[in-house]
Design goal:
This protein is α+β, with helices and mostly antiparallel strands. It has one domain (about 1-175). The chain is built from five helices and four strands. It has helices at about 1-10, 30-35, 55-60, 80-105, 150-155, and strands at about 15-20, 65-75, 110, 165-175. The chain has a four-stranded antiparallel sheet with strand order 1-2-4-3, with helices on one face. Helix 1 (about 1-10) packs antiparallel against helix 4. The radius of gyration is 15 Å and the shape is globular. The mean pLDDT is about 95. It binds iron/sulfur cluster. Iron/sulfur cluster binds near residues 45, 124, 125 and 136.
Length: about 180
């Protein structure tokens, strides 16, 4: 895990090493996914409902005793600067894919979460065929039911840096 810790330290602004008990799950937050403001609901295997129930996902992730909870803040032109927000999310997804590559190459017992949707295939197989690359497709913290704001608060991380910023939170579970 040392390589991954160094990668996160180099690329993120806030980092906490936490125990699985510190991760707060809120199944009711699925309601936001169902409203489909991001347009990804029912579109890929990493988004609800295809990703599975929060209860089943929580069972899977709490098998890892520890997690690295991290965040990176990006500056915006103004609070409606959707282009910069999307660029920031893409940057975080790229960093998550790089972390996942390190996990796969080093055969680590770890899982990194992504940042909404999955862009690996030109056309997702959902819902007709199984995922083509289950080791590379990364569900987001929100998709698996993690309450990001409450977990950040409990970990004394800064969730909001002001109107001209966006902060993305990520997580790596590991043994
Ligand atoms: S890897 Fe391909 S099939 Fe799997 S969720 Fe992503 S886009 Fe869909």
């Amino acid at each position: 895990m040392e390589q991954i810790k160094q990668f996160i330290q180099k690329n993120m602004d806030q980092i906490r090493y936490i125990k699985k008990e510190e991760v707060i799950y809120s199944p009711e937050l699925r309601w936001y996914c169902e409203k489909n403001q991001c347009g990804m609901y029912h579109q890929t295997w990493v988004c609800p409902p295809g990703v599975g129930s929060v209860a089943a996902l929580k069972q899977q992730y709490i098998s890892f005793p520890s997690a690295i909870f991290f965040a990176k803040t990006f500056h915006l032109e103004d609070q409606f600067d959707i282009d910069s927000m999307n660029e920031a999310r893409k940057t975080m997804n790229t960093l998550a894919k790089q972390i996942n590559q390190l996990i796969l190459e080093n055969k680590l017992k770890a899982k990194v979460l992504g940042f909404g949707g999955c862009d690996i295939c030109n056309k997702c197989t959902y819902p007709l065929e199984p995922c083509r690359y289950p080791d590379r497709a990364l569900p987001s913290l929100e998709a698996i039911g993690i309450n990001v704001s409450e977990t950040a608060l409990a970990c004394r991380m800064i969730y909001y840096h002001g109107p001209k910023t966006v902060t993305y939170f990520g997580m790596v579970f590991y043994e």
